[in-house]
Amino acid sequence: MAIGAAPRDILFDFLRWGGRVAASGLASGAVLVLAARPLLEAAVAGFQGLDVALGAAMAASLAGMVLLASALGGRAAVRAPPSDALRVDR
After folding, report:
1. Contact 2, 77 (CB under 8 A)
2. pLDDT by residue (tens digit) across 75-86?
3. What distance in Å separates the CA atoms of residue 49 and residue 37, rounded to the nearest whole number?
4. 76 burial class (0-12, 13-18, 19+ CB within 10 angstroms)?
5. What percentage of the chain reaches a pLDDT higher than 70?
6. Range 45-54 burial, b when 16+ CB lie within 10 A, else e
7. If 0-12 CB within 10 Å is exposed, 13-18 middle and 19+ buried, where does residue 14 land?
8. Are 10 and 1 a contacting pair, CB within 8 Å?
9. What is the pLDDT of residues 47-84, one digit of tens each?
10. Are 78 and 34 contacting, i.e. CB atoms less than 8 angstroms apart?
């Protein structure tokens, strides 16, 4: 990020990055769940399939948590003075 960037742009970059992480995680998780379904049906007695409403609720809550964490990190980055970003403590 450039020194002197607008706080709105910094926060948007954090949220965009968090959204990409959430989307890739949800997509790969959905593929893995669909791939594991036959294994679960064979291994677990009484397993009758996937609950779509529960899966959607879990996906929405996970995406919400990722975006909230990104927003909190972005807010901390916006509040930090630029001079602190230039100093490196070794």
Report:
1. no
2. 998 888 877 777
3. 7
4. exposed
5. 93
6. eeeeeeeeee
7. buried
8. yes
9. 777 788 988 999 999 999 999 999 999 999 888 887 77
10. no
Place of tokens 């609720």: 57
Residue type present at position 37: R
| CA torsion, ordered 35, 53, 23, 44, to nearest 10 deg | -30
The whole-angstrom separation of Cα 14 and Cα 68 is 10
**Residue 14 contacts residue 68 (beta carbons within 8 Å):** no
31-35, 42-46, 83-87: segment of lowest average pLDDT: 83-87
3-state secondary structure of 50: coil
Report CA-CA distances (Å) from 29 to 35, 48, 55, 80. Answer: 10, 19, 10, 35
DSSP category for residue 44 = S
